[in-house]
Design goal:
TIM Barrel; 3-stranded antiparallel sheet; 14 helices
Length: 488
């Protein structure tokens, strides 16, 4: 059998897309609480208040808010994160369904503003108790929690008051949050990741910055690196058995042709992801990025000891998302562009795409696993992978999502080949949105990923009833056979 006996089969979610209960029991506001819904053709919007009191909105992707603007929740507007699919009130039911599928682990995030409502050193005991209850329920079924410490948002108070991660003081607030949860859940959680898809954290939405010029983005990234490294060190001190990883959005790019200029274009595209991994895995800034900083006039302000902190706080494993691949060309006009996983990417003429334009490339997952393992020689954990689609409920109540099963069959076979043929150390697989939740990119519910259907629509209407899709039973069989039975 190619998959290890202790392989971590499971599923993945994020608090801001799944948990709901957005101001329940003392929780504070986060930046994602001011992001509206959208669609494939209509962008999600940030609602905010200008310093002279006007209510405005701006497309959320890559947004830069005006100086002095603060996040604003408009009572007349629908915000998908406020209820999402309501794990807060359904966690026992949902975890029972995960256990029925046979999960060995469950990836989730802790909402920073539920534990520390402002993101500062004020603690909300009710928030801590909620996660105690969730972890206890998981452990009751023998499901290992895999916790992302910060998944795509920041307490709104830190964005409004400190300009988010551009301010070095936020490092200390984050480290306080990390130390609090490491101590609280010392005997309940072993697997952690510090920052979700850190290479995408470049806007007000994710890190609370009001400007998104290169100087601000990379200064904020430096603060993220230092904070993550400090968290790794503290987490190991509190419990030496903790496994603490990083998390990257991995979208490999192939050269559009064998023309050397296209090969170079792909190398440069891939470097942007490698930069974030190099710092957190190797413990230093790579030369290619330092040269880029010189060309852009970016000067990273460091405190004495930062480089040593980053060097000492390298991660134990690499967690990454993989949904699609792309292509790069020296002349972008030669390549058709397609949207996918929060970026515009070159479209590969050899691959099919989903309804939302994401290239379907199972072999690309094996290629990615090989490239990552050979570059870093650390255990790998696929913590997101999946297929967003419109699911139809048949008259008999069944949901026949064969397209999702076919997607996973091919990707799991690619994982098996990477382990068996290429010798990759792969420790787990947690498909994204194992239960239906709000799409991060579009804010939709109709773009569904889950093995479990949740009755909720794009306007927030629905009973929140849970239903098993065909893929639910298929994935259960996959886990039972440790990845050997992929038929359906």
């Amino acid at each position: 059998m190619s998959f290890p006996k202790n392989f971590l089969w499971g599923g993945a979610t994020a608090a801001n897309q799944y948990e709901g209960g957005y101001i329940t029991s003392g929780k504070g506001l986060s930046t994602l609480d001011a992001i509206t819904g959208g669609s494939h053709t209509k962008p999600r919007m940030i609602t905010y208040k200008t310093k002279d009191g006007k209510i405005e909105s701006i497309p959320s992707r890559g947004a830069s808010l005006p100086e002095g603007a603060t996040g604003y929740v408009d009572p007349k507007v629908y915000y998908p994160s406020h209820v999402a699919t309501d794990f807060y009130h359904h966690y026992k039911e949902d975890i029972a369904l995960f256990a029925e599928m046979g999960y060995k682990c469950f990836r989730m995030s802790i909402a920073w503003s539920r534990v520390c409502p402002k993101g500062t050193t004020e603690i909300n005991e009710q928030g801590l108790q909620f996660y105690d209850d969730v972890f206890d329920e998981l452990l009751k079924y023998g499901i290992e929690p895999v916790v992302t410490i910060n998944h795509f948002d920041i307490p709104m108070y830190l964005a409004d008051t400190y300009d988010g991660w551009s301010n070095r003081k936020v490092i200390d607030f984050f480290v306080f949050f990390c130390e609090t949860i490491f101590k609280r859940y010392k005997n309940k959680v072993k697997y952690w990741m510090t920052i979700n898809e850190i290479n995408f954290c470049k806007s007000w939405t994710n890190i609370g910055i009001h400007k998104n010029d290169p100087q601000t983005i990379y200064q904020a990234a430096h603060h993220l690196f230092v904070a993550s490294a400090k968290a790794v060190k503290i987490g190991h001190q509190i419990n030496p058995e903790n496994q603490i990883g990083m998390m990257i959005a991995y979208i490999p790019s192939y050269p559009y042709s064998c023309k050397p200029e296209d090969v170079m274009a792909a190398l440069e595209f891939n470097r942007e992801k490698e930069f974030y991994m190099d710092v957190q895995v190797k413990g230093y800034y790579p030369n290619f990025k330092l040269k880029e900083f010189e060309r852009q006039g970016v000067v990273i302000k460091k405190e004495v000891g930062d480089d040593e902190i980053i060097k000492e706080g390298v991660v134990d494993y690499i967690g990454f998302s993989y949904y699609m691949s792309s292509v790069s060309a020296s002349n972008p006009e030669e390549v058709g562009m397609t949207g996918g996983n929060q970026v515009m990417a070159g479209r590969n003429p050899h691959l099919e795409v989903s309804e939302w334009g994401w290239a379907i490339d199972a072999l690309g997952l094996r290629i990615s696993l090989c490239q990552l393992y050979e570059r870093y020689n650390l255990p790998l954990f696929i913590v997101e992978n999946g297929f967003g689609a419109v699911d139809v409920i048949e008259t008999d109540g069944s949901i026949n999502d064969d397209y999702r099963i076919d997607y996973f069959r091919k990707h799991i076979k690619a994982m098996e080949d990477a382990i068996e043929i290429d010798g990759v150390d792969l420790i787990g697989f947690t498909p994204w949105g194992c239960i239906d939740l709000v799409s991060a990119g579009t804010g939709e519910m109709k773009k569904r990923y889950g093995f479990i259907y949740v009755d909720m629509d794009d306007q927030g209407n629905g009973t929140l009833k849970r239903s098993r899709k065909k893929s639910f039973y298929w994935y259960k069989k996959v886990i039972e056979s440790n990845g050997q039975d992929l038929d359906y």
